[in-house]
């Protein structure tokens, strides 16, 4: 398929935000409609997608399915249930849509005729299901569901019911993990099922697996795929042992008729995932990390020749991580080699943006693959969920940026620029004064180039001075992008009249693997220097920034750095530490993914790593002076709530003005609408106390 993609321009994707509006509020943030998961119909004429809105009367989000022509037009609402309807997938003949709905009291697969008629339930299991995908033949649908290994869904439900009636709620463990992310380990595993579309009979294809398919907690339906003939499924699974100290995941294949799965990447020590067959079935593509024990290694895009087993890294020359990808159509060429060219559209984390690039692979006849890249690409902001429109119809994808939430866009073949298909948030944005982030670059540690973002406040007047909110991202291998963030939203920090500065220091992703690697075992060195030099550069370069009124805020690793700054800097008027690591030795014993601490700090504490003592904020509590707001959730099992309590206790004992905001029903992230309102109220009040005096 020949597709020339142009640069995504500000004019094309800036959205309807106008400078004449008002400052954003928490009600506006909660009022944003979430647009996600576009799926192009087999004939290329329509896109079905999910629209989620918050119901303030119930404090819950409601999601429904919508349909819009790929040529543009008014969206049509397909579902109106008060339950959650999500994850739509077209049948191969384009006559119906499978989706997940909770309208029957549990999450099950439903089928909706596209030409009219009521949706009907396909699965009727006593447990929840997720992630349905159709087989290319239309005979089966694969999905995931949690069961006790070796037990049927019915037996699993009976065990759960029995446990629920027991008076004692004791939890007993003989191995790790005890808990993961925000859930206690209960012995169940997510397994891969197929259901016969005609009979509704479901079968567990991995009944003996003591591992999750897809991997927990963030895997999804992109981690399993049917072969073009529908006889085989490729899937991603966690390691069958040592999950607490291994990042390894593998690509397996299993017959839809049922047999023992085969591990295709057993020799790969790192993580492999997102298997997808080429349309002709000749190749299996997937993403892969080379290094074991490291969650932020480069995600390479690999292609396996199914006839020879040879694997090629098609992104070897691109020093960026692939987040996702989609196969394009095939085309015949005669130069440089005669054969079939296959396009792959890959989504990359790229220097504060998330871009889509068109890669083309060409076998040379000897089993080797040559890779080419077409110029242009979808750039600027954050672009993902890429879908290929059949018959050389271009791409459909989701685009968002710092001054505009996600909407669905399309770019046709040879288009000058993409165009928006949906405008669900246009009425809200038209009321608001939202600026877009501006990028800048400075010399950080070792004289290396480091990047950052600046956001001007609403009602900006260049003749005035504005207090500064300095944001530090988590990870630590993460990045601030030109994006609309649902939680750490730039506009919300700026709304009370603050300028926002956000640096992507050492350890940030999207700037090459070497840059990312340079934070491991050095959480407080070059990254600390990068952050300080970045703030210095911004204060010097932008005359409207008030250097006497600067507050720093961060979550997770960002919270760790805030805690470190509390003992190593007096330049801030106030600090905000969310889910921050305070004491490294106890962090190791209370976190769940031990591989994380062992990679970042050089092994377990008892192996003599000095990092646990030298880089622990708790060791420098004697120097705490800056007023600090500490926020934590009880269900945060990645960074235990003891870390937040320890930080607050030390601040209080030192007599430092401090406040502890504790959410009993939240984990690492604050997600419940009522709690998000409290979170922003506390953050804004704390900033006002120290930046507006």
Structure description:
The chain is α+β, with helices and mostly antiparallel strands and 693 residues long. The chain has a domain at 438-691: Alpha/Beta hydrolase fold, catalytic domain (Rossmann fold, 3-Layer(aba) Sandwich). 17% of the residues lie in helices and 34% in strands. The protein has 13 helices and 38 strands. It has an eight-stranded mixed β-sheet, sandwiched between helices. A four-stranded antiparallel β-sheet has the order 1-2-3-4, with no helix packed on it. A hairpin with a 4-residue loop joins strand 2 and strand 3. The protein is globular. The N and C termini lie far apart (61 Å). The model is unreliable at 1-19 (pLDDT under 50).
Helix and strand topology:
Layout: H1 10-13, H2 26-31, E1 34-40, E2 46-55, E3 60-69, E4 76-77, E5 85-90, E6 96-101, E7 108-113, E8 120-121, E9 129-134, E10 140-147, H3 153-165, E11 179-180, E12 183-184, E13 189-196, E14 202-204, E15 224-226, E16 232-237, E17 250-255, E18 262-263, E19 272-277, E20 283-288, E21 300-305, E22 311-313, E23 321-333, E24 339-350, E25 353-363, E26 369-373, E27 382-388, E28 395-401, E29 404-411, E30 419-420, H4 426-429, E31 438-443, E32 449-455, E33 466-472, H5 490-494, E34 499-504, H6 513-517, H7 526-541, E35 545-555, H8 557-568, E36 574-578, H9 584-590, H10 594-601, H11 611-614, E37 628-633, H12 641-653, E38 658-663, H13 673-691
Parallel strand pairs: 33-34, 33-35, 35-36, 36-37, 37-38
Antiparallel strand pairs: 1-2, 2-3, 3-4, 5-6, 6-7, 7-8, 9-10, 10-13, 11-12, 13-14, 15-16, 16-17, 17-18, 19-20, 20-21, 21-22, 23-24, 24-25, 25-26, 27-28, 28-29, 29-30, 31-32, 32-34
